[in-house]
Design goal:
about 220 residues, alpha/beta, 6-stranded parallel beta sheet, Rossmann fold, about 45% helix, 11 helices
């Protein structure tokens, strides 16, 4: 069980966008809504949001509006959710996330824990002394939107541009027991990493856990 992994010191957490949405941040559809409308698209009808971001990049010959959207949306004031607060109290030393915002860091700051944040490959070569927790922001940070993983090109280049993150995550997934929170398991990078691990280990992955929202009953007949 996950509680045993915590007691044994081999636990980790993976935080997805659902945690931030619970604090008032936008999800991917919210981030791209205005951009999609300007492109003549209905973001609620789109199933490939990475392609929408790529379409915007191609149409504008750059990512200025994408970067502006990241900054505008993920620097908004937000209240930490109860899940953030509970997470920060756990004696877990490794946290991974695909989120750009700084809510995780704030949650740990609020309980006086020293956080070592890694959002670029160059930061992986050093460690913050006496850090209580290391937060790996594998898709980047709001402070550096130009390198945030968002477009189809970004995802396709990820294994080359961010290979160090991939290797560390594979190792952590092999050695540690993860609790996935607010994560939908639709991210192409995570799907690829997990599938490769399953092949490499012949399906013998350690047991991981996730917290999922209970399915809602349909309304109406």
């Amino acid at each position: 069980m996950y509680s045993k992994a915590i007691a044994d010191g081999n636990s980790a957490i993976f935080v997805g966008a659902g945690m931030s949405v619970g604090s008032g941040m936008v999800d991917w559809r919210g981030l791209l809504r205005e951009i999609a409308t300007d492109l003549g698209l209905d973001v609620d009808e789109e199933t490939d949001l990475i392609a929408v971001a790529q379409y915007e990049h191609n149409a504008r010959r750059g990512r200025h509006r994408l970067n502006t959207a990241i900054i505008d949306e993920f620097t908004r004031r937000a209240t930490l959710s109860i899940n953030h607060k509970l997470m920060a109290q756990l004696p877990v030393e490794v946290v991974w996330t695909t989120n750009y915002d700084t809510l995780i860091e704030k949650a740990y700051d609020n309980v006086d824990k020293r956080v070592d944040v890694k959002f670029s490959p160059a930061q992986l070569t050093s460690r913050l002394r006496n850090a209580d927790v290391t937060v790996y922001k594998m898709h980047g940070d709001v402070s550096d939107p130009d390198h945030a993983v968002l477009t189809k090109d970004d995802y396709e280049r990820y294994e080359v541009d961010n290979e160090a993150f991939t290797e560390i995550l594979r190792t952590d997934l092999t050695r540690n027991c993860f609790l996935f929170m607010g994560f939908s398991f639709t991210d192409p990078n995570i799907e690829y990493i997990l599938s490769r691990l399953r092949r490499m280990l012949k399906g013998a992955l350690p047991k991981h856990y996730c917290i999922m929202r209970r399915p809602q009953k349909p309304i109406g007949p």
